[in-house]
Records
---
Amino acid sequence: MKIYRISTFLFICFGAGLAFSPSVKAATFDTNFTQSLTGADASKGDIWLNYITQNGTKFNNLSFVNKVDILSNTPIANVQAGSTSTPGDKNNNTGAASTDKGDKASAPIAVSGLKDPTGAEIAAFVGNKNLNNIIDTEDTGSFKMNLFFDSSIQKDNTGLDNLFFWERGMNSDLGIQAIDSNGKLIGKFLQLNRQDQKNAGYSIDTTEIDGAQQVGSWGVQLKQLGVTSLSGIQITTNADYNGPDFKVIARSGTPYYQAPPPAPKKVPEPNTAVALGLFAIGALRVVKKKSLVTD
C-alpha cells in the first residue's frame, strides 16, 4: 500500500513537472518572399525575403549575421585533380560546412567549393536576405562556429520569435546556444529537431545538389535559450544531425513592417534620348510649317 501511494505520488509529480516544464519545440512562422525566376528555374534563382508573419503580425525589422568565428570545421580532404563540389562522378563530398547558392542565384562572393570557407565567407552568405544563399553541411562532418548579429537581440513581451532558421531538405537537426559579445556561451543549449520544422513554402536547388529540395523553418524565442539578450549564437552539428543546410536571421526590436521603396523609374538610354529629342524637333517644325500655310 505504501509503495502504491509513493508510486502514485511520484507519478503525479512527474506528470506535473512535464506539464509545467518549458517546451523546447521551435515555434512556426510564415515566410514571405519574391523569386527572381519562374517555372523550373524558380528554385535555382534568387529568393528574396520580404517579411515574416507570425501570430498575425507582419515584420521585416531584421538583424543579420555580420561576423563569424569558426571554432572547428571538418576540413575538405582527398581533393584530386579534376574533382568538384558539384554532383557527378568526380564529386568530393568531404568536409563539413561550406558556402552554397542556387545554381542561377547571385551571391556576394563566389562559393567556397573545394576550399574550406573562412568566417568572412560564411558571414557573407548567411548575412543577407537572399534565401538561396546558405551554408551547406556534409552529412558526416561536424562544426562549431560563433555567429554574431549586427545588433543586440533583446527579449520582449510580443510572444513572437527572435531567431528564424531555414533548412534545406527538412531532414536535419541543428544545435544552438546564445553567446555574449565576447563569444562566451550563455543560457542553455537547444537542439532544433527536423520533425519540428514547418514547410517554408519554397524549394531551392543549389550547386552542391542535383535537384530542388523543400525548405523547412524553425522559430526560436530567447526564453527557450534561457537568456534575455544575446549578441549571437553558437551553432554546432555532428554526424548524428545529418548535415543541416541552413540560414539564420534575427528580429531586431519591436516588430514593425516597412514597405520597400518603389522601383526607380527607368532613365532612357542615351541613344533613345537623342532619338526622342530629334523626333520632338521634327514634330515642332511640322507644326510651324502647318501654321505658316494656314496663315
---
Amino acid sequence: MTAAIFAERAAARLGRQTFASEKDRARLSEVAVKAFLNLARAWDLSNAEAAALIGVSPSSLDRMKRGARPTLNQDQMTRVSALIGIFKGLHLLFVDDMADAWLRRANSGPLFQRRTPIEAMIDGGIPAMLDVRRYVDAVRGGL
C-alpha cells in the first residue's frame, strides 16, 4: 500500500478531509478556484502571476476564469490554502487597500531579499508561500 493511499484511508477513518484524498479535492476544488479568482482580482494579479501562483498554465487559468472548475491536485490545493491564509492574515493586520497593496511592495526582510512578496512566492513556490503565510501570521501574532 502506498503512503498516499494509507494517509487517505487513515484520514477517512478519522473523518478528516485531506488534500491527498481525490474525493475531498473534487468536493473542495470549485470553492477553491472561486476563492482564488476573487483573491487574484483583489490583488490585481496579472494572468501570468496568477497562473504561476496557483501552478497552472495561463490558458488553464483563462478557462477557469470562463467558468471551468477542474479538480485541483494536492499541490494546487496547498497553494490556494496558503494564499487564502495570507489574504486573511493581511486583512486582519491592515485596512483593505494596504492589505492588498502590501504584496506589491518590495520588502527588505530576509525572506524577501528586496523583492515583493508576490515575486518571492512565484520564485519560491509552495515553500515560499508557506513561509510568507507564517511571516504574516507571526506579525499578526505580535512576534
---
Amino acid sequence: MEAQTNSLLFNEILFGLAMTAFLALVVMEKIKPYRRFNQKINKESFLTNTTAFLFNNVILTLLRVSSLFFVAQQFSTHGILSGMDSGFLKMLLSFLLFDFAIYVWHYASHKNYFLWRFHKVHHSDKSFNVTTGFRFHVFDLCLEIIYKCAFVIIIGVEANVVLTIETLQLFFIFFHHANLHVKNEDLVSQVFITPALHRVHHSSLRSEHDSNYGIVLSFWDRLLGTRKELVPEKIGLDFIEAENFLQLFFLAFITERHVKRILRLVPRGRK
C-alpha cells in the first residue's frame, strides 16, 4: 500500500514537471520561435488547441489514467513480462515495447482510412507550436485508450510503470511540437524525436507527413524506413482546416473524399 502511494506521488511530481516544461516551452517559443507564423493563424491555433485540451481533459483524463491503471493492476501478472522480477530491466523493456506500440498505432492512424478520419484533426493545425500537442479528436483519444489497455494486458506492464511512461510521453509530445530550434538537434534526433523531425510529420504534403511516427525514440523510424529529414514548406492540411473547437470536432466527419466529390460537382470555367 505504501509502495503504491509513493508511486502515485512520484507520478504526480512527474506530471507537474511535464506541465512546467509545457509552460517553459510556450515562453521560449514566444521569445525565439524557429518559424514565425501568421499572427491570426497563431491565435486561432492557440485558442482552438487549448479549448480542445480543456474539453478532452475533462472527459478523458480520469478515464485514461484510471483505465490503464486498473487494467495494469488486474493483468500485470498475466502478460509477456509477468514472469520477470520488478526492477530497472523490466521497466526498460516495458518502456521500449510501449513506445514501439505507440509507433505502430501512429503509423496505423495514417494508413487506415477510418483512423485517419480522427487523427487528421491533429494535422489540421496551420501552425506548429506546443499547444498542437493538445489538438486531438476525442474519439481518437478514446480509441487509443482501448489500444493501450490491450497492450498492457498482452505485455503485463505494472501499474506504476504505465503511469510513468504516460507522463514521459506527455513531456516528449510537448517537446517535439515546440516551435524551437534545439541545440545539437542533429545529434539529439539520432535517439529522440525532436521538433525538426516532427515538423516534417506536420507537413501539408502527404508524401512528407507520412513519416517520423515516433513519440519518444526516433530509431523506430530509422529501423522501419519511415524517417525523413527535410524542412516542410507548409504546415497543416491543404483541403481542410478548422478555426475553432466545434469545427475541429466535426472535421472528423468530413473526409478528403467528401471534399473531392463536392469539388467535382462545381462547374469549372474554361482557361
---
Amino acid sequence: MDIMLFHSAYGLRPAVREAAGRLRAAGHEVRTPDLFGGRTFDTVEEGVECSDALGKDELLKRAVLAAAPYSERGLVYAGFSLGASVAQTLALGDVRARGLLLLHGTSDLAPDARVDGLPVQLHVAEPDPFETDDWLSAWYLQMGRAGADVEVYRYAGAGHLYTDPGLPDYDEEAAEATWRVALGFLEGL
C-alpha cells in the first residue's frame, strides 16, 4: 500500500519517521512530507503558531504538491493530529484514495463532501481536549453521510499524541494497541 503520512503541529519529529519505519516493515511504501520546511517544535503552542502563520491554504498546497506525484496509484492518506486533518481533507478530495488513517485528529467536512465507501479508521484518546465527545459524534455522523465507512477507536486515559514516545502524552500500551489495529486495517485494504 502507498501511504502519505503527515506530521503533527510538532513537525516532522523522530516519532513520525519511526511510524513510517513501522509501516515500511509491514510492507508498505510510505512518504512523510515535511509541511514545515524542516522546522520542529518542543511545544504544541509553537507548532500551532507556525501552522497558523503558514495558513491552512499553504499547508494544504504543500500537502497536495507532495501527494500529487503518487495519487495515480491510489494513496492511503494518514496523519497525526494536525496531519490527520490534512490527510482527511486530501482523502476526501481524491477519488482514487484507497483509505484514510487518522491518528489523534479529524477535520471539518465540506458540506458537499462525498466518498463512495472510503475506509476510514480513527484512533483518539478518551478524553481528548482537541477531539471532544460532541465533536467526534458530529464528525462520525458527517463522515457517514458523506459515504465513508468509519471505525473509531478510543483509548481511555491516554494523552492527545499518545503514540509519540518523545512527548509527555506517550502511552506505550495505547500506542501498541493502535499500531496493531492500524496495521490490520491497512492489510485489509
